[in-house]
Amino acid sequence: MKEIRILSPSGMLGYGFPKESFLNGIEKKPDVIAVDAGSTDAGPHKLGAGVGIVSELAVEKDLTLILKAGFELDIPVIIGSAGGAGAKAHIDWTMTIVRKIVEKHGLHFKTAIVYADVDKDYVKKKMDTDDVHPLGPVPILTESVVDLTNNIVGQMGVEPIMEALKDGAKLIVAGRAYDPAPFAALPILMGYDSGLAYHLGKILECGALCAQPGTTKDCIMGYLREDHFLVEPLNDKRKCITSSVAAHTLYEKDHPYILHGPGMYLDLSNSRFEQFSDNVVKVSGSKMTSPDKYTIKLEGAAKVAYRTLVVAGIRDPIMIRNIDDITRDVEQQVRNYFDEIPAEDFELIFHLYGKNGVMGDREREKTPCHELGLVMEVVAKTQDLANTICSSARSTMLHFPYEGRKATAGNLAFLYSPSDIEFGPVYKFTVYHLVNVDHPTELFPIDYFDLK
Amino acid sequence: MENTITLYELAKVLRSKNSGPFEITFDIIFDSKEKYELVKSSGVITKELIQELYLVEEEDISHLVFYDPAYAIKITMTRSVDSGSIGDMDVYGSQQHAPLIDIKIPIANKIFEGGRK
Known about the structure:
The complex is a heterodimer. By secondary structure, chain A is of the alpha+beta class. Chain A contains 13 helices and 20 strands. In chain A, the strands form 3 sheets. Chain A has a 10-stranded mixed β-sheet with strand order 12-13-9-8-1-2-3-7-4-20, with helices on both faces. In chain A, strands 5, 6, 15, 16, 17, 18 and 19 form a 7-stranded antiparallel β-sheet that branches. In chain A, strands 10-11-14 form a 3-stranded antiparallel β-sheet. The relative contact order of chain A is 0.15. By secondary structure, chain B is α+β, with helices and mostly antiparallel strands.
């Protein structure tokens, strides 16, 4: 029987996984080890600032096991969205760790780096020909927004990774990639059904999150065959059951059975989830369709402001009762005092935990808790201005003489001394658009070299 | 009075999460066809209900889909502030599900006992 085995060590490179699960997977002779290293989940900061979300030590621990196993079995190791956001800075960071491991353990790989950075002029040219469109509820892209943006990456599909595999690469470090792509590339190259390969990749990319109990911090194995695939946990403590695997198919997607990716969409309306054995689930019927135009998702982030914040508790019941009036009046007093500063140069935001700190305007529960957690933040054009406004707003709030006050010594229980915390730059996703491309690989140059 | 059971009691998974930085998606997943069909056929889960629970407009809700193969309901809505931007309060969007847990589904007495467990 034709079968390809894909080992997913963890839902995120650097999240860690039990060594026993991994070795259990290695014993089952995988044909490829693939791991996702990125996401937009943690917000725009990683992409904008060119930093990661996991520690160097954690990535080194995970990669040491993965690279040694890949080398010993002589199978491809594929890392997708390297370093968190998949821009050049993130690839460089990942490669520093890779080189250290390769050197330390005497490994040897034909290596391919697939870059995903997108040139701003390329984006502008594509805008001129009306080939850039918002993805979802996003404003239309303008040249000034592109200029403002710090980093832009394109989200690659399987094609650039397949090219690297075809050219014999055994270690592929890919920039920003569609999460399932590193898992689906080898199977599709070998002629397996692309709908099943992508669907399996979608399930594997979060590690054992598709099992029960689910976690991103454990290994999972996929077996892709001609007309179905199997998903098997590699830890005795977990089982894959139809509801857990089906549930994972929907995870963090806007639609349950139409999943859009680079140059394709998956149609899972006729997918079948069956219990194959006690802990293994069988999936069939997933289909992939390629629209006429091949589109790549662009992601870009820009530095838009600087932040300073204060954390404090509020326990006075009279103050809590009047909190909306107090925060409004405090802001007004601060703005009046700094009347020489243009209003749009800073924003003062009161997050009130215990009231609507999680859901904001969408909170229907109107009764506040007996104590409130306050995070007062100032975002401003410069760090200096943020510090200045925060300091003034903090002292204003601390001594504000609200209606009915008897506690005249101070209104806030500060968590820290000093109370004001300088946060640094604040980023925003400025680009989240689709671009029409002529060829799936045109945005993703590959660099090959021998690594030992 | 009509007997009801909460969505929390019926669902196996009831969660919210980012679907990209500009949307939040809600998954309500059941571990049996019976529970899924009970909720689906009740007609309780509608865009109107979601608008009421989240104080949003109809155009904020991009999808409300029943997915039979997974016994799942998915609801996707636009974020009021995009993930991690100034003013956002839930970067991963993973704590927005709470208003769904108390949704009441009418049931006949017999199924009621089974569903409670």
